[in-house]
Amino acid sequence: MKRHEVSKCLLCNNPIDESVTWITLLSNQFPRTICSHCEDKFEPYPAEPIDKTVISLYKYNEQMKDYLHRYKFMHDVLLAKVFRHQIHQHLAKKEATIVPIPMHPEKLKERTFAHVDELLKQANIIYEHYLIKITTETQGGKTREQRINARQIFALKENQNPAGKEFILVDDIYTTGTTINQAKKILLDAKAKSVTAFTLIRR
Amino acid sequence: MNFKLSKTRKPHKLSYKGIIIEPQIRDFFAGRIWTRYNTPFPQSKVDTYILRNYFTTKKGITIRTKVLIFQRTHFTCNRCQNKIQQEFVQYTCAKCEKECVYCRHCLNMGRVTSCTDLISWIGAKPLTHKKHLLDWNGTFTEAQKEAATQLVSSIKQKRNHLNHAVCGAGKTEILFPAVHYALNRGLRVCIATPRTDVVLELFPRFQKVFPKTNIHALYGKAPKQTGFAQLVISTTHQLFRFENAFDVIIVDEADAFPYTYDQALQKAVHKVKKQDAPVALVTATPSPQILAKQKKEKWGYSFIPKRYHGHPLPIPRYESLWSYDKAIQKGRIPRKLREWTNEKLSNQEPFLIFFPTIQLMEQAIPLFQQLDERILSVHAEDTDRKEKVMKLRNEQILGLLTTTILERGITIKNVQVAVVGAESKIFTSSALIQISGRVGRNAAFPKGDIVFFHHGITAEMDEARNEIFRLNKEGFGKNETP
Ligand SMILES: [Zn+2]
Ligand SMILES: [Zn+2]
Ligand SMILES: [Zn+2]
Fold first, then answer.
1. CATH number, span A42-202
2. Where in this chain does the record put each Phosphoribosyltransferase domain (chain A) (predicted)?
């Protein structure tokens, strides 16, 4: 994903009129990839969540639905750049090990990219895989009950020892919490010191 | 080969190479270019046809390495012909475990990458019919008749054609004889337009007058349509999915803002037409480039300066509306605009008010709704666009505020039109001519008000008005110019 830096909004294709100010220059921010009109349509998730162990940045509104569709299902990998600044701000200074929720290898081949890893890469966040996905089924098509009663969906990755370490799990979207909870359990069962979670979106 | 054919032996054992072609596969793929793994048919079936050479395959993206001072790769999308390098994205593909490339230009039709194949049908051609019925009993004006005849003649000669017809000249009807002629020769015809609205307007009209013809309407999110369509009405965007398919192409509203008959569109048309297929452009506002091309390449040409009902085009009038944007931002409709709106409301005349930006329009709409709550606003991304226009047409609402999105392809009886901020850059002379062309289209209401509210008169405004004067002069001679 090299090539040219972005001059037109990645979502609506209108020109991005970013005036480079001293602040943007000195604070070393990522250049914008979407226009302010598109940005305003994303709705932040309230900063004070009930469950403090999961931090989420945005609500799942129409704009986000559209974004996720284009990124994950239309496979527009470039859109991994859209939230790089926000993700960087939240995770760059964290001491804990960043662990993306993994994809099943078959699913990965189908999608051709790991959408969570890609979000982190674009935000310059170092991450490490501790888990592997052992089922190919997706959470999307299930009822709430089915999801909660689901079989184990993850296993510990070979040669990784989480004992005594702190972790932040990262996923694109938090729906019922099954995914995060299952992943968390694997790490805690292997004696991880603490596990919290960060997701881009929360429904 | 030393075996004998005997009657007892089943013939299909011999013809192991052939398969019976399913008509729905042939009819679907004929003239199309499609991604191999994303068809409406079972993959095993498609793979079998490919194996038996009923398709040719090529890579989704061609990668060329140019060696200048340093090495540089250059990409071309084989579906949409895009060559704009910024619209290609290189990334590490998990399927191939190497760098692959995809095209963003046509992404919304399903991603095309350097590691996906595109397939084109080379098997037997679908059966075309030669008995199409033109069920239309309207009458042509002299000018329409002449233009229609000229268009048929160009298509007979396989010559390109420019049909320049003023807004409200009845240019769709002019196409009927030419389309009928081509269909009856067994030719495949495409009517392409940059706008979905125009496809939606043309489709039912053609269905009605060609009741025996299978017609497909193609636009984003169009419903699935079956069989082989000898007549295709498509947005220019959807043309990406065809290749070497059509014997005749008509580009309607060739210069519809924000599209011009530009390089990209010309390339798309070139790709989907058969080699010697004629292209006819239909427009109310031909650009100087198109006019020059028509002369240079000796295309056929027809010109209709008069509306079908024989009345002249309404001439826009100017009204100053100083600092209208500041007034609206302060929550106030400028006096002249308010009075204009109130007048239309009390006369019960439907009206359109054009705004230069969505932002300004959104600030204005609550103010207008205080005058009358039956006023709505529409813009390009509005999902209820169709419904809102219908409401205006059915007199359920009295007025619509709009961005330039409604400048063409909409016809509302007795509509009155105002442009707010006519000096804005977005209102080019051709946009203003089109907007003015909304007024007085109905024979029962051939007149109507078209007013340019402005903060200073621009050259584009004058150009639009002069062109309308000129067209009226062409149509009616000096003395009759209003
Ligand atoms: Zn945008
Ligand atoms: Zn393309
Ligand atoms: Zn690949």
1. 3.40.50
2. 124-203
